[in-house]
Amino acid sequence: MAGRSEVEGAEGARRDEPMRGIRLLLASISLFSVSDALAKRLAETLPVVEIAWLRYLAFVALALLPLMRRSGSSLLRSRAPGLQMLRGFSVVGSALMFISALQHLPLAEATAINFVSPAFVTLLSVPVLGERVGWRRWTALAVGMVGMLIIVRPGSDVFSPAALLPVFSSAAWACAVVVTRRMGMTDPPATTLLWTAGVGFVVLTILMATGILFGGPGRVIQPDAGQVGLGLLIGVVSSVAQYLVVLAYRAAPASVLAPFSYVQLLFSGLLGFIMFGTVPDRWTVLGACVIAASGLYTVHRERVRARERARALRTA
Q1: Residue whose C-alpha is closest to residue 55's, from 231, 291, 312
Q2: Lowest mean pLDDT among 135-149, 201-215, 283-297
């Protein structure tokens, strides 16, 4: 999904092209939704770890392309290997929990819950990055959490523990975002992609090997050619979506693009209906609207703060 972009901080010096950025972001969102829908379909017949391993196999292959073109190992060298490993663990953990959620939840519901990740980013940015968060952003955070609770409905007859999986997935992804911000410009984006793909692939390979040898949660079954092809397609589609996000955030500011990320809720709801015959209930729609409102207000506050910082620089 769009919230799973690998390019926080990709907004360097550039000439803004808002319409191009919006088109690229919408294309990436549609691909993320397709990738999630295909993963949900494949999760009906393959274990989660195996789906994630096939996805990362394609991810690693595509991430290695810049390395092969430059025919050197400089991209493998990181000045913050510990943070890169932490980011890799966070991203693969987020992927595993989200795919697990897709086994049990409608696509639109899992996607909507996953959009609370900005709230977790705000929570983590205070102790980890030392950011100052005003009462307005704390209020927006609380509203987003209320939206998540409306969808999950803990304590009700319809509550499912599986609804907590996208919440944990969001928290893991927020950790990856905060780590990326902490690294800043320490490593180039291609190096971060390589480390993220490599760390995740190693983790998943160990889980696969454990399943082969001992069975259990990481158990592996023999996939047929169609399942392998679908798993690799998921990896290619999600990786292309990541690349389109990179291009989008180079073309336009995050404050312009962020509101359009919520279009993924519509795409996911439509694909969920077409592929699985599921229609979001009124609570999911209400909770998604509350989460979106919280996120849009946060974007508005970021725009206000950016203008204030710009004025301060001009008058300094």
Answers
A1: 231
A2: 201-215
pLDDT beyond 80 at 1: no
CA neighbor of 257 nearest in space, from 265, 268, 266, 246: 246
Cα separation, 11 vs 178, in Å, equals 16
**By the 8 A CB rule, do 42 and 132 touch?**
no
Compute the distance between CA of residue 102 and CA of residue 268 in angstroms, rounded to an integer: 12
CA-CA distance, 174 to 208, in Å (whole number)?
26
Which residues neighbour 157 within 8 Å (Cβ) at sequence distance 6 or greater?
none
Q: CB of 231 within 8 A of CB of 54?
A: yes
Question: Among 315, 295, 239, which residue's Cα sits nearest to residue 32?
Answer: 239
Q: Which residues neighbour 316 within 8 Å (Cβ) at sequence distance 6 or greater?
A: none
pTM of the full predicted structure?
0.82
3-class SS of residue 185 = coil
Residue recorded with tokens 């819950």: 113
pLDDT digits (tens, 9 = 90+) for 17-51: 778 888 998 999 999 999 999 999 999 999 999 99
The tokens of 303 are what? Answer: 């725009």
CA-CA-CA-CA torsion sign (246, 252, 254, 259): negative
Q: List, as one string, the DSSP characters of 95-107.
A: HHHHHHHHHHS-H
Residue 151 has pLDDT above 50, yes or no: yes
Tokens of 192: 């971060």
In the DSSP assignment, the letter for residue 126 is H
d(CA 14, CA 37): 34
